[in-house]
Amino acid sequence: MNSDHQSGSELSKIEQEVIVLLAVVELIRSMVNREMFDIGDGGDTNILFRTRTHHRFFAIALVDFLSEIDQKGPVPKAPYLSAIRRISAQPSFDVGGSVSELRLAAEDFKHWLEEEIAVDVWLPLLDQQLSLQPTRYCLHRIVGNLSKHNFLRSIGVVEDVRVLFAKAGCTVEIAEIIPSLEQVYEQLHDNVGLYHASVIAEFLNNLLWGIQTYLQPEFEHSWTPDQIVPLRYSYQYPAGLKAPLARACYWELMNRVRSGPIFRRFSVSSSFKQLY
């Protein structure tokens, strides 16, 4: 049986890059948009979610961003952020260092996620006051998965929580942790997660602007207005872009560059960067 699906090994480097970049842009835009939150005016600012439900969706989409690309997808399996860093190291569209902003944004976010923090939690059902020390990546992986699944779909996350508890001096079985999951979630999501949200939004927005700056020269080279029909335009596909999926992604990616990121560049107040 013939199939139109092409694996990452069958796609060229530039085709894989285009597909990944569009996926990253679409995923980040699902988190960083005006339906999700507002940002304050001026220089140093913060974000304000529309509702608690929007904050919960932000956590779910974030854990997807921190996860690996599907193994059966058309590009090699890797976490999205790792894929961005790989593109930044060997870019296909760099013109005069246009990729440098994207490279810096990806490295900054990576280092922030890898840092270990101290989080105090009170667990009345276990009668324990614990000082947990997760990396920010670990914390948001736990929060995002608990936002998405109930306890019967979160046993792997419960194991991560058990490891954190053990490091904090509390050795308990998985069955003992499950009744306390909601308490863990409330303290990590409502307190730390909400505190981190503004900084994470800044990192994600910086990635969008990094992609915008990186691809702007390609857009200017590729965009071709129709000489007869007003407002009609086309894009000139670069060499090596042959696969139908890659061409479709390129067209949409160029449209995203044409419209630009939703938010201006913004910097979050230092008061949201000092705790946790």
Give the topology.
Blueprint: H1 13-31, E1 37-39, E2 44-45, E3 47-49, H2 52-66, H3 80-89, H4 100-114, E4 119-123, E5 128-132, H5 136-148, H6 155-167, H7 174-177, H8 181-222, E6 223-225, E7 233-235, H9 244-259, E8 267-268
Parallel strand pairs: 2-8
Antiparallel strand pairs: 1-3, 4-5, 6-7
Could you please describe the fold and organization of this structure?
The chain is mainly α. The chain has two domains: 13-114 and 194-272, no CATH class; 119-190, no CATH class. Helix content is 53%, strand content 9%. It has nine helices and eight strands. It has helices spanning 13-31, 52-66, 80-89, 100-114, 136-148, 155-167, 174-177, 181-222, 244-259; strands at 37-39, 44-45, 47-49, 119-123, 128-132, 223-225, 233-235, 267-268. The strands form four sheets. Strands 1-3 form a two-stranded antiparallel sheet. Strands 2-8 form a two-stranded parallel ribbon. Strand 4 (119-123) and strand 5 (128-132) form a beta hairpin. Helix 2 crosses helix 5 (136-148) and helix 2 crosses helix 8 (181-222). The longest helix is centred in the C-terminal third of the chain and has 42 residues, at 181-222. The N and C termini lie far apart (53 Å). Mean pLDDT is 94; it is low at 1-5.
